[in-house]
Amino acid sequence: MRELPELIDVDDPAWPELRKELDSSRAPVEVLPADGEAGRAALLHLQITARSYLGAFALHCGGLVLDDGWLRVFGSPVPGNPRDLPALARVNDFPATFDAGWRAEAGLIVAHDVLGGVFAVNGAAPEQAGRPGAPGEVVYFAPDSLHWEALGAGHGAWLSWILSGALDEFYETLRWPGWRDEVRGLTAGQGLAFFPPLWSAEARRDLAGAGRRPVAMAEILGVSRATCAQLDGTDPGFLGAV
Predict the structure, then answer these.
(1) Per-residue DSSP letters for 14-50?
(2) Which helix (DSSP H) or strand (DSSP E) does residue 241 occupy?
(3) Does the pTM of the predicted model rise above 0.85?
(4) Terminal CA-to-CA distance of the chain, rounded, Å?
(5) What count of Cα atoms within 13 Å lies in the side-chain half-sphere of residue 139?
(6) 174, 191 Cβ separation under 8 angstroms
(7) What per-residue confidence (pLDDT) applies to 122?
(8) What separation in angstroms does the CA of 60 have from each of 17, 39, 134, 216?
(9) Residue-level pLDDT at 103
(10) Collapsing DSSP states into helix, strand and coil, what is residue 11?
(11) pLDDT at 83 (0 to 100)
(12) Residues in contact with 61: Cβ distance below 8 Å, sequence separation at least 6, in sequence order
């Protein structure tokens, strides 16, 4: 186990470069202030250094809200932040006090989108967790297919990608006229539930015509996991605690 000074006091910390990327983001982004104590605790649990984008983000950033709330990226926010964004530690069920034996074995949930899509960084053995991709690769649980998809990039490259404006293309078939106004009114703990559901043929034919209502994100994730079991008997695994 590495102590905090080994994790924080590093050559070439990633935060200055990441801060530049945040300041020059092509996507509308709100950067939430970080809670220093929570950031240090997260770094200690993750056992990664501030030289990595993931470590720097957990230590220095309270989280990101992109595209008016469409995508929520978890960091170490101050309690009672205006967006009420949950912390990376809460979403991933970190122990309340440091436990040297704890590991996020399946991987780390790093973001949710308003549809119930989940971005995660693979753990050391993704195949055992039923996920595609390599260890350390970012994967996406797609609400329109109810399957994990490997994105071919690590966390740092993924962060750069979402800040580059790539979300417009990534979600091209999952956005409808007026989506931004609908999303802007949601809290960080809410998402949009669709009827017919996004994975249905009906929703694919006419997404704009599908019914939508704000519900708790926990409900959306729970329904997705239960539906996977009902449709093909698979379990996508942990999708985050919100």
Answers:
(1) SHHHHHHHHHT-SS-EEEEPB-HHHHHHHHHHHT--T
(2) none
(3) yes
(4) 28
(5) 26
(6) no
(7) 96
(8) 12, 7, 27, 28
(9) 80
(10) coil
(11) 83
(12) 18, 22, 31, 32, 34, 75, 76
Burial of 95 (0-12, 13-18, 19+ CB in 10 A): exposed
Check whether the bond before 236 is cis (ω within 30° of 0).
no
Tokens of 223: 């329904």
Contact of 77 with 63, CB cutoff 8 Å: yes
Q: Which residues of the chain have pLDDT under 70?
A: none
> Which one-letter DSSP state was computed for residue 77?
B
Distance CA 151, CA 135 (A): 12
Residue type for position 99: D
Q: Sign of torsion, CA 135 20 88 58?
A: positive
How far apart, in whole angstroms, are the C-alpha atoms of residue 242 and residue 237?
Answer: 15
Q: Is 215 helix (H, G, I), strand (E, B) or coil?
A: strand
The label of the residue with tokens 């949710």 reads 112
